[in-house]
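Teaching note: in complex prediction, the entire set of molecules is handled at once rather than each chain in isolation. The prompt given to students was simply: 'Predict the structure of this complex.' The entities are:
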Amino acid sequence: MTNKPEITDENLQTGPICPYPGLRPFAEEESLYFTGRDERIKEIIKQLEERKFVMLTGASGDGKSSLVYAGVIPEMRAGLFKAKFNNWVIADFRPERNPLDNIANTLATTLGFESEFVKTQLGYGFSALADIYKSTDYHIDYERKEWEKADEEARKTLKKKGANLLILVDQFEEFYTNPENYSNGKPSKQSQIVVNTILETAKIALKEDLPIYIICTMRSDYIGQCASFPGLPEYIGFSQFFVPRLKRKEMYQVVKEPALLSGNRISQRLVEILINELREGFDQLPVLQHALNKLWETADRGKSEMDLIHLAQLSGIPVRYLPKDEQEKFKTWFAELPEYRKKYFDHHGLDKVLATHANGLYETSHEYFINNGRANGIEQTISENDSKLIIKKVFQCLTKIDEGKTVRNRMTLQEITNIVNLPNIELKIVQWHLNIFREQGNTLISPFISEDAASSDLSPETVLDITHESLIRNWNRLKDWADEEYDNWIQFLDFKKQLQRWIDSENSVDYLLSIGPLTFFDNWYDEVKPNNYWLARYDERDIPDEDKLKDADEILKSASAFIEKSKWEISKARRAKRRIRQFTIAAATALIILLSGFSFWAYNERTYALDQTRIAELQKEEALLANRKAILAKNTANKAKIISQDSEKKALKAQKEAEKAKLLALNAKQLAEIASLRAKEQEENAKREAEKAEKQRKVAEVEKERAELAENRARKLSLLTLAQSLALKSTILDENKQLIALLAVQAYNFNVANGGKLNDPAIYEALRSSYVALHSKNPNTLTGSKAEPRSIVFPGDTPSLFSVGKDGILNEWNVDNLTIINSTTFNSNYQSSISSLYYKPDGTMLVTGHDNNAICLWGSGKDNTKFKEIKAHSAYIRAVAFNTDGNSIATAGKDSVIIFWDHSSDPPTETRRIESPGAVRSMIYSANGKFVFVALEKGDILRYSISSLEAITVYASVSTKPLSMMINNFQEKLIVGFSDGKVRIFDLKSETFEYEQLNSHTTRIEFIDISNDGKLMAVVGSDNIIKIYLIDYLESKPIVLKDHKTKVRCMNFGNDNKLFVGCADNSIRFWETEPIIIVEKIGSLVNRNLTQEEWEGFIGKNVEYENTF
Amino acid sequence: MENQNPPQIRLFLATPSDSTSMLTEEVKNTLLKAGMEIVQVSNDSDELDFVEEVRSGIAQVNCSLHILGNEYGRTLEFDESVSYQKFQFQEARKRIEEGRDEFKMFIWYPPDTLLSIKEDNQAQFIDEVRTSILNNMIFTNADSSIRLVNDIRSMMTFDEKVKFDIKEAEVFIVFNELDESEADEIIDMLSDIIDPIEKLTIVQDSDMDYSEYCIQQGGVSKLVIIYFKNTADWALPFTQKVWKSAGGASSDTSIVLIGTDDPESNVGKKFNAPKVVSLIVAGELIALEIKVQYDKVLEALSN
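The expected output is the structure of the full assembly:
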């Protein structure tokens, strides 16, 4: 039912509420707005109903806690869980650092016992928990006499008291992440007790059918560590639920439904962008919820519809994503922002919203402290730098590095304050610095401030925590702080190693710090100011905190002593150095004096020594000389020996040569005899050569002639090339029109005189463009039609051109003076609009297809009363073919029916009908009228016999489609233009319809026509380019026409081979296709020839001048 | 698990421009492998045929997919400002604007396209698409065809709700079995003056989807009453669940959550929300209060 009246509660608070919790998980009271997980909730409930235990695992940020608190638990309470009792008692806890205490406390509160009692009982493990439950009024023992004796009312009363028990262990991974619970791969005693109790309780509940249910939530990256608890892996295998990522449909629910439920508004385009901008990864849901929370706030706290501009104002998307009008609004808003906020808009993204928010709080924290701290009795003045330092230290306390990852670290306010270690900074001051992060709407640190003013205050034992690790992953400043803290700890460990060495060496001076390390650590110490609390924080031993502090004190004392001692030693060393320096200077002076006296004595001695040395050298030289002489004599003797050896060798050589000469002489005689024989041969050869020479002379003469011919040919080629060059120049030069025309004509002359192609495209284009340029108005355009010409014909009996358009007007044109002679409306009496037009090529009949699927025949169209109507097709016609016998036409179209008509009667008589295998695209009769060629829409071409109606496949298409057809009567060929831009020419004489292919266009072929003399073929593509080929030289380059720049609607060659096209701008363009005619026309407009100077400049001195005209 | 037998998805796959033809072919194969039926118009068709085929294609499907490329592509002859892509988009959007059914449009904006848009008019078209999204239009930048097809399948799968045998009623009263006797008395008193009254007893170990039943029965009843005496802990979350499932502030169903002031713990057990009236009254006045609320409804209806 719709339109039901709304009943309202007068006490209902008005004003929109925010349905998005932000970074924190959904609480049970927020289940109303927890959406997108309905199916998962049902699956978890089903599993829990059957197995009484579920380990809920998933990646960080996938919403495990929310799923339980805001999904499963409300369903349970609403009676949508099959259990024994209506009521539920829920004992939920986190392991934290004291899992046994925590479970005991929650059970005690829930079941109404003293904590100590419960803790003691649980300490025994196994059935302890189940026994505690059974001892309460929540449990009904159906075998007890009390139940058996009770009547129906009493039983009802008992049942009203009964309650199912749900035990929820949230953040199960804290059994591994807290060193108190788990170290060196071993769980602590407390952890073992708690896990054992939980598992045993689950088993007992299943076995005895007790209404006790257990849910654990745990990050899936800790699954491996579960093996350290006996029985746990098996139970996880028995009942685990892996929380999947949200599908897109579920994302829509998460974003849109809370808004709808709470009466807020959110635009669809914002929803799409939000979902698209979410990155895959750990933090999808927290980042999204946080962004939605901020969006609501930015949209005037729900009073406006949440839209793209609000996301842009949070730096969630760049400005260019906004509609234009909103970009201006954004710019105005942006201009008024404080400077520190503007820099946050350098980067955009949904993940940046969180960082922008956190940075904003950081920047305004000092102001918040001053305003709120003062209002709460804090008088102390703190500088902005100190405020920021406090916040930095707070966050450094609330994070830690665990196996290379930055994770949360829960700490009490007192612990944090102790570590902050700034002068006069007490608990309250630290509290009022971090309260800004606890406010509603911020909720980056828990516990959060509620509407209750007292919640602003924190006790020293309050445990603080970062709401979600997504803050760490997405706020770079926090990551940097955590890294810095980690570096500090590593530095301290390094320092501690050195300290320990010194201590172990009984404070030996050899192990003190040298100047470099001392400077480093001293500066580090001054900056970080580690205190005992800071040290104790990193002490992972399982000892009381007081002992850790005591040890830390000792370490710091030793550290201080170490540094001081190092400093002392270094300064001592410096003093010692100074003394040594002084002594050195005095000693040096004495030495100098001594050395001076010594130097003089040494000088005298030296002089004497030098003289002696000189004498010794002289003697040495004499000895060397004598030695040399001896060596020389020895060498001479050796040389003589060598010479005599040489002579002997030479004598032997001479002997050998003599023998050789004798042999040579013998040879020479033989050779002479051979030479004589050869001489005779050569004489004969000479004769032959003479004959050859004569022949070659003759050949040379022939070659000379050939060379001359080649030279002529080269000359011709050169002139043809020149013609091409002239043609090109004439199209690109910006000279006077007469000159350009002369160059074009001269190019033509060279081309013709030297055997160039008649239809050379470059020459043609040069002539055409220069002719058009010479005219004051466009000489080849017919304008004046009110509609696009859809068909053009040249009736043989008149020189006029007829065009007809869908407006039903037939225009008769004078082509010479480019005007309309006559306009006739031929279809004013017919009721349906024209959808297609077909003019018989000889202009004697006009056929129109109409929206009502009828066909009308108009005679020549000039007389608008003479028409015949055909209503035989059930869909619009696509093709009409005119037979050469003058009486028959064929029609075909979308209804896959081809009908042949005798139109001499009124009404026209159907003579034949064919059901074609598909809708018909185009159709044409053969030259002899015995066949009709049909191109089907699906791509095949068939030939039907008119007499037998039998069909033969001319072409079976695979992928391309025939669009336009023409018969070349001269060569008996069927020419077809295809959608792939190719023209295929089928030989109709061949039984197998072989074809040759012309790659004419890169776009689909729209029209094809053949000139009346059969020499030219024009092809138009959907790119509007017209190409004219010589039919006998299809391999040659065609003439290309593209100056019309508008869609071609129809095409036809005129009787004089001019090409006419009807255009989408309602005009008809035409072109001469015979270059000689263009030349003649140019001749009538040009009144001179090229000058000598122009000739030499454009053509060259080596070509003899001639008149162009 | 979601519905194992989703309805057959018939999808109109928009003819691509040259720049997206390969991607479209890849997506088409993935769609076919995912069991979807594809309707697509050939690019080679004559323009008149193309227009007609697009229109008839869109009329016979339950969703469409349009892939945005970096080129504007071929334009219509009769309106060169409209590309083939844009024309198909506009035709599909018309069907959404008609609002006759749950037809959905998926517009895929592949991540690479953003980096390489070649033409201003294509950039403009994409901006227009992005800023004019309606309900049932899904604008996605999925990073692969697999993810895209998964999204389509999930968006086109509707949960089959159980159809209950419901009857039109003046008042529909829901209560827990533990409050059955009191509730029956109240119904007895009311049945003399209000007829017909439909009732639902919530039994703890039943398999029935009570929430869905309440929505369906509530839809054909003038007033929905959720009553409690000893079961406030059940009544409040149950009311919240029904309100949420019915659509919350945007639903048509008005609910009265009414409980007795005995036991005292019931005082304060209220649910403040639009379309909900929460009342705690003396037990003997429950029937009267229900009558008062019913009369308000009748008065509002007659106005």
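Point out the following to students. Residues 1-5 of chain A have pLDDT under 50 and may be disordered. Residues 577 and 1092 of chain A are 102 Å apart (CA to CA).
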